[in-house]
Amino acid sequence: MSWFWSKSKEEADQPEGWNVLETVEQLDAVFLASNSRPQLLFKHSTRCPVSSYAWSHLKENTELLLPAYDLHFLDLIQFREVSNQIEQRSGVQHQSPQVICIAAGKATYNASHHHIEADSLVGSG
What we know:
Elements: H1 9-13, E1 18-21, H2 24-33, E2 39-44, H3 49-60, H4 62-65, E3 70-75, H5 80-90, E4 98-103, E5 106-112, H6 118-121
């Protein structure tokens, strides 16, 4: 037994304020919550260096984004069905990496690849 507790890699990579999307039921709750507060979805490909860069940028700017959105992270490689549902429900064609802002059940803003900037997201919801 270890005297030291350590976070798993997934927990260590997940900053406070970000919710992990793993199921379609969680996505249902995100779209429902968008009726009272804008939601930000980040679709991340764990196989893509551009996606890793975008994820690092968003994590560094969590405090900037939290007042405007509930924040959600999706590993689209592991949870492809959820990614497919996001495309179907939002009407935004799949890209990776990608951010999609949802308000009142509809996509209000999206960006992908090097166009993902925290400053652009604030006020877009």
